[in-house]
Amino acid sequence: MLEVMNLSAGYGAMEVFWDLSLKFEGGKTTTIVGPNGAGKSTLLKTIMGLITPMSGDVLLRNESCLNAETWQRINEGLVLIPEGRLLFGDLSVEENLIMGAYPKNSRKSLENNKENVFNLFPRLKERRNQISSTLSGGEAQMLAIGRGLMEEPKICLIDEPSLGLSPVMTHEIFSIFRELKEDKLTIVLVEQNTNQALKIADHVYLMQAGRVALSEKRENIDLKKLEDFYFARN
After folding, report:
1. 31, 37, 125, 203: which has the highest count of C-beta atoms within 10 A?
2. Does domain 1-77+154-162+186-234 bear CATH number 3.40.50.300?
3. Which helix (H) or strand (E) holds 183?
4. Is the dihedral of CA 44, 32, 17, 161 positive or negative?
5. How confident is the model over 68-116, as pLDDT tens digits?
6. CA distance 188 to 161
7. Closest by Cα among 158, 177, 156, 174 to 166
8. Where are the alpha helices (DSSP H) in the chain?
9. Over the stretch 166-206, which tens digit does the pLDDT of each residue have?
């Protein structure tokens, strides 16, 4: 469903990752783990068209989307839930959700999708009129996920959702991801909490210093080997 082929990208003259080739199977959850600076977030931004790659290709349903603008990729069902939430701080919870339905294809289902989000996150329904900048970290993350779901994603790229959250809230957020996984949403999850990330993964990539150091199905993962690669012991 989504594939990157021999992809290299970075910022200006600084290359962050090199010659990456990864496949993300439809209806499955693929987890990308690795230390800070490995290039994980840059990869997601490149897939979304926020960064122009230096070389390589991004294939969406076996067709290159390199020439598509970010909004066009969103209309094709590719959605990014960014690191740091990036909410509209002066808008209410409900207004943030409405902004998520901005793509033309999802506007007609706005009310239905909003109710689906409120059913998934009852706490957001309770706070629908609250200004988003006053939410707790966990509530803000719920809203960021809900806003992304308002776009009716077919492929959801999720960047560091547990960042800054308590263990209790992290567990709650990942329980939602399990529900989305059961609904066969294609998920690409970048996450440093390896323990939580592995629990919902079908396939695992470990990135290190701009390259893929390990690629395995979840059931074949050797945790000791993964830890050794993560901390560059090999």
Report:
1. 31
2. yes
3. none
4. positive
5. 999 999 999 999 999 888 898 899 999 999 999 887 778 888 999 999 9
6. 12
7. 174
8. 40-47, 70-75, 93-100, 104-107, 110-120, 122-126, 137-149, 167-182, 194-200, 223-230
9. 899 898 999 999 999 999 999 999 988 888 888 899 999 99
